TrEMBL record:
GO terms for molecular function: L-amino acid transmembrane transporter activity. The keyword Membrane applies. The chain crosses the membrane at residues 68-86, 92-112, 142-166, 172-191, 203-223, 250-271, 283-306, 326-351, 372-393, 399-423, 435-460. Residues 1-11 have a biased composition (Basic and acidic residues). This is Neutral amino acid permease. PANTHER family: AMINO ACID TRANSPORTER, AMINO ACID TRANSPORTER (EUROFUNG)-RELATED. The keyword Glycosyltransferase does not apply. It is found in: Membrane. Pfam families: Aa_trans (PF01490). Keywords: Membrane, Transmembrane, Transmembrane helix.
Amino acid sequence: MESKDIQHPKDNGAQVHDTSGSDSEAIKPEYSSHGAHDFQTVPPESDDNANIYSQGGKNFRTLKRWDTIFILFANQIGLGILSLPSTLKTLGIIPGLIALIGIGVLSWYTAYELLQFYRLHPQVVNGVEMTRFVGGSWLEGVAGVMMMIQVIFVAASAIVTLSIALNTISDHATCTVVFIFVAVAACYLLCIPRTTKFVSHLGIPNAVSVLAASILVMISLGIKGPREVTDLDEWDRDIQIVGSPSFRDGLNACLKITFAYAANLSFVGYMAEMVDPIKDFKFCLGFLESSCILLYSAFAIIFYCLGAEYTTSPILGATSVTPARVAYGVVLPAIYSTGLAYGHIGAKYIFVNVMRWTGSLHEVTSNTVKSWATWVLSVTSFWIIVFILSNAIPVFDSILSITSATTISWFTYGFSAVFWFNMNWHCLFRDWKKICLTLLNAFLIAMSLFMNAAGLWASITELLDIFASDDSTIRGVFSCGSNAQF
């Protein structure tokens, strides 16, 4: 995720790149055809396709099609899936499924737009660098700040979930602030090494851990039912086909769904490390998004039907105490690795930019006092911010919704639409198809702005209501009360 100096492509001046038609029509003046493939591609060995990962003594562009698919799955399936059954409880099965599928399809389309823009600028290594081609260094700076906000929020959501798990497993043995401190300290210590090689191998165990914990809860709910149910045979499930939520509750449910599809931020980084991303990434993306839409829909329906009116978020707390504690124990590695991975990304981004601002970029990989001091200060400052944020928003649902409302909306939808307008600015109304795409992308930008405004209002007021509720043990920021579900 580090911000790198961009090498601008050849002849990238006044050409108009129409991406509305088939992929084979795009960029004919610049790139040669790749036969029957959908995309006009730059051959992997071409200088136009080079980025910093293919320069120097070692080529880091080693990801092939199935390598990328596994990484994408590991990155997409995480904490967000645990909140999906509760969205059906709020919206009802039919509206909830429409939201799950609709938001998933929009995320799929905007990720495809990233690929369209990437094939014009294959030398970039992350989504933040893409913004320089649209708005120059100032927009890249704004996007960099937004990226850091998202990374901090996602790391904080992992810390909050760790505190919930520790409170649940230990029966609230100590103050929640202490549990948050323990979780932050553990992530902080493992972020101290400047090269955390094993972080890249945590993705698959992360996804497996989440799914294994969910299966344990599913079995428990199927056999014993939710913890509030004393007699499973006499329990009459209250399942809403069409819910009647308030505007705020409905919007918060959609924000939680958005969080589950929030991996778009990392897609460009994976393209940059693929052997031939322009040829292979479209297949990888289609496989990922179609599978996730099916998995999320099935997961949400199964758990909502098992938990009915007692469905919780995260779903691990819906079952009785012992299975819930076991499930939280199983999911601990996934939660911890999420915090660790995002913590290293955030600290590395701070580190590289500080070294650039101080004119010491050549010392980034050196074992000098200055580079190590800057690195330790970067890691320390990052986790101090995460500690403060985790104590300010110690509620699982609220931190997911606020994260979606602040920056995820832009990195998943808004920026992709901006890139599309940049590629198609001179032919927005050429034909009916172009008009439809223009309206769709304008809608995506408007939706991002709406999620910023209304989404933040909905998520923050919900958090304040939780603080004020007589039933809540969390009475405000830096609260010692338990944030566990029982």
